[in-house]
Amino acid sequence: MVLKSYRSPKTEIRESSINEKGLFAKAFIAKDEIVVVRSGHIINDEELRRKRDVVGDADLQISDVFYLAPLSREEFKNIMTFVNHSCEPNLGIMGNCIFVAMRDINIGEELYLDYAMFDNNDTSFVCNCANPTCRKTITGRDWKRKELQKKYGFYFSSYLLRKINKNK
Question: Full-prediction pTM beyond 0.85?
Answer without folding.
Answer: yes
